[in-house]
Recover the amino acids of this structure.
């Protein structure tokens, strides 16, 4: 039974001749009400009778959609709207909810359709999991019958997805067909294509004309989701999903034959290769043992009796698809359902290099921000604006504010993919948002592409959609112990590791981070700089609360920021130093940041110097809100037991040992699947792995020292992190002053063996910037990084005057990881080059002594080092360790230990940091990295990684961008 809510204050009670009796739902297009017609008018001539087919009698109830369209008052626009709705009325009532009436003349435009008493397929999948057997087959037949009827009437649905399929007692029904085109006819969404990213056809994404073939593609994607519980092209960021739709094959999961072959054909990239809906329906009926009559048209049209057959088969509980004696692979070449696509097809062969599908695609990572005017003046040399670990956001290009003032912004990803073949995207912003059907627009080749997010919250650290698990249950996990010696887990003490992981579960801030490093709004509805980028306006979503009922408002954010600024042990001093008033708060002279002012429902933020990517920092927990109960930064009662507004709340804890997180029922973005998660702090990988193997634990983080033991480990989750382990050549003096010597070292190293020594968790590095950063996943132009070349290494060493027997210092800090890396590097250099490596060790606890040794007047040779940006951006990675004005000396704290100076490198970074276009900015960063690699200013070794073992009885459990478990999506099978 469909859930019917009572009318709310402000809801209309009548629309034309219809009396509204309840609220069925609300989405991006409008609110849907249950209603009855008080004036019993017969349908006009030529209009469909709701009693057909089969003489079904409606019970008098109808569904009335009150549209949110903004009419211009132009009579022609209203006329076009009425014409489009009239076309939708011609759709036969075979497995559809027929459009019965509409009114565009009044101030409240609405569309009336038959009321279907049944839940949406999306809700059934979320609550009960994937469909199997006859249930799945009936859904396939019924929905394709509906699409065939829709196409027969000359209508293209353009937004077919699980949410638009209702499961009635007599079979599935498709709703909302023609509505998108009708809205477009008003001019309110001119030149748009409407759809949900996971179900959009390639031609919808690329801005090409959209026809019935797009609905066939959406049907295929819907069948995959219905059968597997996972979208065919993933469910992380919108640009990543779109990239896969354009360039990669679908993941059909466990979808079985014979439906699997049909779905694969429907998901062809080329619309010309997809079968028509009529042909797919005919094939489904054949497989169900009810073939269409001989001679029936099977390409562009279907006779009425075939639609009747489809509706009858979909309504029969025993209907099943059976394998055909002639499998699709054996079908005659003339059949588009059975043949291998021709060689020129994107699916038939590896496309030629000049083809958009044949070349290495552009990085699928979205570009998260667009820099506004107010960058450093021409000629200025960039430097860390607030300290040696200065952080700027990921290179990007989407516009801020990502949402219009007053829009919800909930769960919306505000990003833009890199420009690339077949695609030209210049920005992305929220057009409207209502309930879970937020609408996002991208500029595509001069037109606007409007897309709906996946039903519910999709991707990132707040996703609960798409898991095939069930609601309820508990889980125990093990993670490393925190570094806060007093056990604080409040946002102001957040810095890294477990001390950052726990606040992420307990608090929700302005923006959130997706697994690929890109950002999306959470409680921010807009983040807008002025022309100078010194003053920022942040709109904040209203109506949310902390778990104790206190409101999460602008005051709560200002309170949290001031608290973090006054806490020396968190990331606040790194990330907030350029906010006006930081010095006074951190020095105890003030309790509030003078540069953070509450204005209405939002914040006004003033920086001491322009920074056009300030918004990227807001993902860090130190920018989270706190309730009044938080008190001062030294309030240990709160610091150890914080009250938050995140997906979980702290149920109980044992200081230094464990934390139990319980579902926060008042979370603004839904509810977690698990009731509770107990987080055990442990440094013993063996204990955690044993607990997972026995079924006691659902997750165990593996210590890096144990990565070498992971070979053959089942249920292993791993991912590269945003850190690069490297060798710093001390180039001021000594053997590494010669570029040939640095290249000789790089060519002598076998990075694959170093990676293997860590179980492959540390991937071999092919650049300075970590591959986890958006835009840097592909191999960079570093020939000496790609594979060892002993012959060339010896030649270069000879040219540098460093023959066999040469002594070269190698500095290291004493840790298990560096000990292992040092042994391998030492062996490779001594074996290949014949050098004598003088290993010089410093205890890990004495970093200052290590740095002092590297900047001493007699320092020379090579040194191990690791570096990562504060956020996923190239600027803080490259500038901090290679900038010409931040060379490390005994009397400063800079991190350019190599002493590298290159006017070309500095010029490129100066250009990049003030380049507005995100794709261009990324390109300039890549040029800067290439300049440093050509000079071998740093010698990359491996990228850091994170690994964990998981219990297969849980689903939705993986590593997020920080390498933490995704607790918000985890569920029991």
């Amino acid at each position: 039974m469909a859930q019917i809510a009572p009318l709310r204050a402000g809801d209309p009670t009548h629309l034309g001749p219809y009396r509204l009796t309840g609220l069925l739902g609300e989405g991006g297009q409008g609110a849907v009400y249950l209603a009855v017609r008080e004036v019993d008018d017969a349908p006009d001539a030529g209009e469909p009778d709701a009693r057909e087919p089969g003489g079904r009698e409606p019970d008098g109830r109808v569904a009335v959609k009150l549209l949110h369209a903004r009419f211009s008052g132009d009579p022609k626009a209203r006329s076009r709207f009425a014409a489009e709705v009239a076309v939708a009325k011609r759709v036969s009532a075979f497995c559809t909810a027929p459009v019965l009436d509409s009114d565009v003349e009044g101030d409240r435009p609405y569309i009336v359709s038959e009321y279907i008493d049944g839940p949406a397929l999306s809700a059934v999948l979320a609550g009960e999991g994937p469909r199997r057997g006859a249930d799945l087959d009936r859904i396939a037949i019924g929905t394709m019958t509906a699409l065939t009827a829709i196409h027969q009437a000359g209508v293209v649905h353009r937004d077919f997805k699980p949410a638009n399929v209702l499961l009635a007692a007599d079979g599935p029904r498709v709703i909302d067909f023609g509505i998108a085109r009708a809205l477009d006819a008003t001019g309110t969404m001119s030149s748009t294509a409407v759809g949900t990213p996971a179900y959009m056809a390639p031609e919808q994404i690329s801005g090409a004309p959209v026809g019935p073939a797009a609905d066939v593609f959406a049907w295929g994607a819907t069948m995959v989701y219905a059968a597997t519980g996972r979208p065919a092209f993933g469910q992380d960021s919108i640009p990543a999903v779109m990239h896969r739709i354009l360039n990669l094959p679908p993941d059909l999961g466990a979808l079985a034959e014979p439906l699997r072959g049909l779905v694969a054909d429907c998901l062809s990239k080329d619309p010309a290769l997809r079968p028509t809906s009529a042909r797919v329906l005919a094939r489904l009926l054949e497989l169900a043992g009810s073939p269409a009559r001989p001679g029936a048209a099977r390409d562009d049209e279907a006779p009425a009796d075939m639609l009747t057959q489809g509706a009858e088969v979909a309504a029969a509980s025993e209907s099943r698809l059976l394998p055909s004696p002639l499998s699709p692979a054996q079908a005659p070449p003339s059949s588009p359902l059975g043949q291998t696509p021709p060689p020129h097809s994107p699916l038939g062969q590896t496309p030629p290099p000049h083809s958009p599908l044949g070349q290495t695609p552009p990085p699928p990572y979205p570009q998260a921000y667009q820099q506004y005017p107010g960058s450093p003046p021409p000629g200025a040399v960039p430097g860390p604006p607030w300290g040696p670990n200065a952080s700027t956001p990921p290179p990007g290009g989407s516009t801020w504010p990502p949402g219009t003032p007053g829009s919800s912004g909930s769960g919306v990803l505000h990003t833009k993919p890199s420009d690339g073949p077949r695609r030209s995207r210049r920005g992305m912003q929220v057009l409207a948002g209502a309930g879970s059907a937020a609408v996002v627009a991208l500029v595509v080749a001069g037109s606007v592409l409007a897309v709906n997010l996946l039903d519910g919250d999709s991707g990132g650290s707040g996703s609960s959609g798409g898991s095939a698990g069930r609601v309820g249950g508990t889980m125990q996990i093990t993670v490393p112990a925190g570094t806060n010696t007093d056990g604080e887990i409040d946002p102001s003490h957040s810095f890294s590791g477990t001390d950052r992981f726990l606040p992420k579960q307990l608090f929700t801030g302005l923006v959130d981070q997706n697994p690929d490093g890109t950002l999306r709004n959470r409680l921010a509805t807009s983040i807008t700089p002025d022309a100078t980028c010194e003053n920022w306006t942040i709109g904040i979503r209203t109506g949310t609360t902390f778990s104790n009922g206190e409101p999460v408002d602008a005051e709560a954010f200002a309170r949290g920021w001031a608290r973090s600024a006054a806490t020396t042990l968190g990331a606040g001093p790194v990330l907030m130093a350029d906010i006006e008033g930081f010095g006074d708060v951190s020095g105890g002279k003030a309790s509030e940041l003078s540069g953070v002012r509450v204005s209405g429902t939002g914040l006004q933020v003033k920086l001491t110097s322009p920074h056009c990517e300030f918004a990227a920092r807001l993902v860090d927990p130190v920018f989270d809100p706190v309730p009044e109960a938080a008190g001062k930064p030294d309030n240990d009662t709160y610091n150890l037991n914080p009250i938050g507004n995140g997906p979980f709340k702290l149920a109980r804890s044992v200081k230094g040992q464990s934390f139990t997180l319980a579902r926060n029922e008042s979370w603004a973005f839904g509810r977690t699947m698990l009731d509770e998660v107990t987080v055990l702090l442990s440094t013993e990988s063996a204990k955690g792995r044993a607990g997972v193997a026995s079924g006691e634990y659902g997750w165990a983080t593996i210590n890096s020292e144990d990565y070498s033991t992971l070979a053959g480990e089942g249920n292993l989750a791993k991912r590269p992190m945003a850190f690069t382990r490297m060798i710093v050549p001390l180039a001021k003096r000594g053997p590494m002053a010669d570029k040939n010597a640095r290249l000789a070292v790089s060519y002598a190293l076998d990075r694959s063996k170093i990676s293997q020594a860590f179980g492959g968790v540390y991937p071999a590095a092919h650049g300075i910037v970590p591959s986890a950063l958006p835009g840097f996943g592909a191999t960079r132009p570093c020939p000496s990084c790609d594979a060892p070349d002993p012959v060339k290494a010896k030649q270069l060493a000879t040219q540098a005057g460093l023959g066999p027997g040469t002594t070269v210092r190698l500095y290291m800090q004493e840790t298990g990881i560096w000990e292992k890396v040092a042994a391998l590097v030492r062996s490779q250099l001594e074996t290949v080059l014949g050098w004598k490596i003088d290993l010089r060790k410093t205890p890990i606890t004495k970093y200052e002594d290590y740095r002092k040794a590297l900047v001493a007047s007699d320092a020379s040779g090579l040194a191990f080092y690791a570096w990562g940006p504060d956020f996923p951006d190239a600027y803080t990675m490259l500038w901090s360790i290679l900038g010409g004005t931040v060379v490390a000396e005994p009397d400063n704290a800079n991190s350019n230990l190599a002493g590298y100076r290159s006017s070309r490198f500095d010029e490129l970074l100066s250009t990049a940091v003030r380049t507005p276009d995100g794709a261009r900015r990324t390109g300039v960063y890549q040029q800067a990295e290439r300049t440093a690699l050509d000079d071998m200013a740093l010698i990359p070794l491996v990228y850091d990684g994170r690994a964990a073992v998981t219990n297969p009885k849980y689903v939705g459990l993986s590593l997020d961008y920080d390498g933490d478990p995704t607790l918000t999506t985890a569920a029991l099978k």
The chain has a mean pLDDT of 77. The two ends are 25 Å apart (CA to CA). The longest strand covers residues 716-730. The chain has three domains: 14-189+211-330, 473-681, 721-946.
